[in-house]
Records
---
Amino acid sequence: MDLVYTPEQIEFRRKARDWLKENVPGTRPSSREEAAAYDKAWQRRLHDGGWAGLNWPKEYGGAALTGIQSLIWFEECERANAPAYGLMSIAQTHAGPTLIARASEDLKAFHLPRILRGESLWCQGFSEPGAGSDLASLKTKGVIDGDHIVVTGQKIWTTGASTADYQELLVRTDPDSERHRGLTWIICDMRSPGITIRPIETMMGESAINEVFYDEVRIPISNVVGDINGGWSVAMSTLAFERGTTFLRDQISLSAKVERAIDLARRTPLADGRFAIEDSAIAEKLAELKAEGLGHRAMAVANVSNVDRTGSPGPEGSMVKLLVGGTYKALGEVVTEILGLGMLDYDHSRASNPWAYDFMNSWVVTIAGGTSEIQKEIIADRVLELPRAR
Amino acid sequence: MVAAHALIFCGALDAMDLLLTDEQEGLQSTFAKGIAKELPLERLHGAQGQAADNASLRTFADLGWLRMSMPEEWGGLGLGYAEEVLLFRELGRNLGPLSVLAGVLAARLAASSGKLELAESILDGEEIGIVVPEGDAGAASGGAGRARLFSTGDCRKGVLVLPDGASLLDLTALDGAAAPCLDGTLKMCSFELGDARPVGHTEGGDLWWQGSLLTASMFVGQAEGARNMILEYAKVRQTFGRPIGAYQAVRHPIAEMTARAEHARCQTYYAALALGMGRADAAMQVAAARTLAQDAARKNADANIQLHGAVGITSELSAHLFLKRGIVLSNLFGRKKAALRQILNDDLMEV
Ligand SMILES: Cc1cc2nc3c(=O)[nH]c(=O)nc-3n(C[C@H](O)[C@H](O)[C@H](O)COP(=O)(O)OP(=O)(O)OC[C@H]3O[C@@H](n4cnc5c(N)ncnc54)[C@H](O)[C@@H]3O)c2cc1C
């Protein structure tokens, strides 16, 4: 155990801080198309500055950062108020790593540079109306026809489908197969004929998620990652990356949000004229959340150290996701208490009231990317080896 | 799959690190084995518990565990808080004697206030109790008010630690009658602070923060101990033809117990390092560790009792002991309220 940064790490932090100071762009626009262009431009700038593919290996154009360096980088991003990956997130944090681990050299050569340079946006087509937590029950059909797979069916909750260039698509290629056998992981070009996208409005008032319909969409077999009917293991590595360090920035942002809430409580009077911070129930709740945030950071340090040492993210990612979700929700509750009626001033855009947005979004945190219940199942199975119900 | 990840995370090991070094791993396993052997939870059922704890204090002293963080001229190893938290986590797991905590703090107090003989006798295993003032800790600085002494057996000295200074008190002259305590594995006496004779004193908050940190570690151990107890039971107890651990209403709380204990453990290790470095945010880090660990210990004690069903509330099972000892610890080094105030008012450190 050691909390001392090496001279190299201190130098790395300084370099990151200086670069971010010069390069952080203005506010992200709210319209979907403009936001997509903004996210791509930011990725291009990261690439040109040498900050693309943070933990991808050098041979694929990545920055090959250690876990601790990634942590430092995200801390500096938070300090500089730099944009998050946004719509680039899937390409950067799980499509790219999955391709590196499992795709053919041709697919790597084509896609990886485009992802790094911010030229392609990706989306994830796993969930279906009948298959969310239970991904193995998916039904979207892929029929092999010569050197193509012809896809028919429907995906849902697809973040960024309307702006995406490519999709991580999971389909059932063996019609007689059950559960996780007979699935194939394939790269779908989102401009292919036969794809229809219908946006779904969220309770925050955005339409970042979509239904995607496939009507005999022809995808070249050369786009398959892994083996035909062997898509389950590819999907599992995608999810392992997703739960690995994808949420690191969110974790760090959460602590900053707690600090802002404390500041809000110092400035906001309650009905009785006292400032919210003078209310002991509010003050204690905020202090508890601050302690939770410190604990999240300590856990992040332990987890990235572990990844640096062993080379693989363990099931700890599920513990962090579970805990962070809880803190998000509790933060929304206490801010609702502080703001009172002010929590209601919301014109269905994040900018109009980030507190209201974040509170509504806390259910996204506990549902998307595997629900809290599923994280508990993962802990019960893989950490505790409890007997299974299934 | 491991190979695939190895490809992605290709960094070398860094200094900034919350994992144990090989030496620390070694120490931890020594503590774990020693304490599991000396202090199995079953000892706390029946009269032999106190005798076992008294004997173990001597054993730990003989093993040098009390002096491991003392400098070499004291026969110590010059180790730090990072190693102490490992010892206290194991003690917490087996509800070890509070006099180990009292001894570590009192020996440091005696040594730094020049009471060398006293320090030696404590390091050799003389039992010291923990003194907790009633009411506001601040009022006790003047030596007034009532206080309670917690100990394993009969002890003649107690250590009183306050946020701004600490005293070693001679309690020989007291008629502080032992009162029955909710935690029946401890001896509790009530006395008038003015009647105790100070035999050593130090100024400053060092012992307060060390005490808070070690209390946090014991809470972490308790949170893990309670989790381990129910985890074992969940694998063997059957209902409706299945082990209860197969039901989500049981699996999920145990998963939550695990995440909570990990959260508190990581924060406690972090706080130990921050305190050892004398970092500007050390008090806040310790207070956060204390808060998270106390919550984890309480919630895990609760879930452990609940998920055992009726046997959970019997005195034969050790589940209640985690709850009761947790209530004792939650009164040491200020209560949670004070820790929360510290957290709220201190600034996050710029890194
Ligand atoms: C904002 C947002 C963005 C998303 N983006 C994408 C995306 O880009 N691509 C994509 O593929 N998917 C995406 N998802 C889908 C997400 O992965 C699923 O919503 C999630 O996995 C849950 O599946 P479900 O919604 O079908 O709920 P269900 O699986 O129907 O679950 C319903 C409830 O039952 C509980 N439950 C289910 N199974 C169990 C079990 N075994 N034990 C205990 N409880 C259980 C769940 O926790 C939940 O509370 C997104 C979701 C959201 C909210």
Note: Confidence is low (pLDDT under 50) at residues 1-14 of chain B.
---
Amino acid sequence: MPEKMNIVEAINAALHDELENDEDVLMYGEDVGEDGGVFRATKDLQEEFGEKRCFSSPLAESGIVGTAIGMSLYGKRPVPEIQFSGFSYLAFHQIKEHAARFRTRTRGTKEVPLTVRAPYGGGINALEHHCESPESYFAHAQGLHVVIPSNPQDAYSLLRKSIQLDDPVVFLEPKQTYRAFKEEVERDPDAAELESSKVIEEGKDVTLVAWGAMVPVAEEAAETIDADVEIIDLRTIYPTDFDTVIESVKKTGRCAIVHEAPKTGGFGAEIAARINEQAILHLEAPVERIAAPDVPYPLYSLEDYYMPDENQVKKGLENVLEF
Amino acid sequence: MMAANQVYEGAIKRIEVMAQDEESSLEKDQLHEIYRQMILARKFDEKAFKLQRRGEVSTYAPHKGQEASQIGAVFAMNDDDWMVPSFRETAAYIARGAPLDKLFQRWMGDARGQKDLENDLPVAIPVGTQNLHAVGIGMAMSFDEEEKAVVGFTGDGSTSEGDFHEALNFSGVFDAHSVIVVQNNQYAISMPVEKQTNAETIAQKALAYGIEGIQVDGNDVLAVIEAMNEALEKARNGEPVLLEAVTYRLEDHTTSDDSTRYRDEQEVEEWKEHDPILRLKDYLKENDQWDESLEEYEEKAEEKINEAANKAMEVEDPEMEEMFEYVYKEMPDLLKKDKKELEEVEK
């Protein structure tokens, strides 16, 4: 029976169902226990599954992820939470140089089935360092899966798939849309696949690629222009499903990409480069990137200028269409 | 929890055996086995050094002088305990029974040398970060209420790293079954321990985390075993321990280092008198436990080491595919394409 949920409720449901599904699954992080996490993603889980399966830990990102690596090498399936992705850099070394490398380092005899969850992205008038979009850093760390859902069903299914995966995953949750809308969610992990992007609107004039909280922005912008826009939700940043994007571009001949991270070195650059390598003769216009400017994420009085909005996406689509 | 007006007064203890003229409770054959392992580890070290000079090994981190702290620690462990080493623990691996040829193979730049290590983690190059893995394993043992422990090795330099402190803190908070052994070999490359920390001992850092700190004479293998027995018993019971083994690196930091630039020859000579192998030999002689077969073992050890080194050198270099095989459990399409492209160019 499908239930109506928003994204954070879907995440809570996925965590609940994995705790029930596999006794090796456990989760911890700052305020994760009694408080249920600052966004309540782990709400009620400690009460139901006990303090050994869901608990609060000392305030130390490297400590949280580093000990989770140890636990996973020992056979647990930890799902540590980093309270905000802007603080994940303190654990970056553990994620990149250890979690992502143990399989390689041991020639496949030891593995790290770890899912690091972190809310990411801006748009909620938060403090400094609470708004970052670090997906490119993690996508550049070979050995990781980097997953960003944009809706409740994907959040539920992709999180369950990530926890079940025998490789480490960085699961970034778009906090701006945590509670923005509800939809029916089937409690079925197979309702979405990792390493697979999704065409959420079919169209023939231009391909628009987005992920996370930029997906609703892309959808709104597409409705305001007089063109048939094909919208792709990338869903898995890495390993990337470029094939779906390339196929779409071959059909439409035009492409725009929207993301919250700054333009330089943002994941849009990688997508544009792949299109260049694999579909340049199909292009009618240069690939357009709608991204944040190359400045530090500002304090919130300026964040509306920083984050790509419907107007910027609309302008980007027009540039591509009118080239 | 202490009352608001109380001041905490903690203490650490130091364990010595040989210097106190105490007798070990170990059996003669156990003592001999320990001695043989120390000789074998010393011979490995010397051979690896030579292989580096001949260009068979690119960089090697010698453990000469630290055999007692490593082999003593491992001697006290059970097979189903876990070991989380740093990068200078070749003697510990030898004592844990890792195949000698595989150890050489790893130092020859072939990761296949560190597969199938059972309850031991592979070499960790970044300083101090592996302490958190040890504590994570110890937390899992605690959650599962298992009577096992994990022994993590780290160096004095790592005690300045944040991860060292986070590891000690987590171990205390979560009753981890962990013993973190700091081999205080006096130098982090060129940095003497006096400049690494203003604390009088490294063991006392345990007190800040509410766990037990023990200092041991790390060149006295019998003291290390005694300290480790105590530490492991506590750890198995959910009381983590920080154990400082005071020792000395008799060689350079690695084969790329030149320790004459930062330390006196006289200092090295003085520490040579405390060489852990000589000390055990003296102890055995003084206690009528010496056996001429131990003298003869040196030759046997050298043969074993040479055989292992030759075996490692004969192994063919890994194929290019090896690079792609173990990044993910199932190779993603992206990597399959990368691999194919490289294969075509390399044809």
Note: The longest helix of chain B spans residues 28-53.
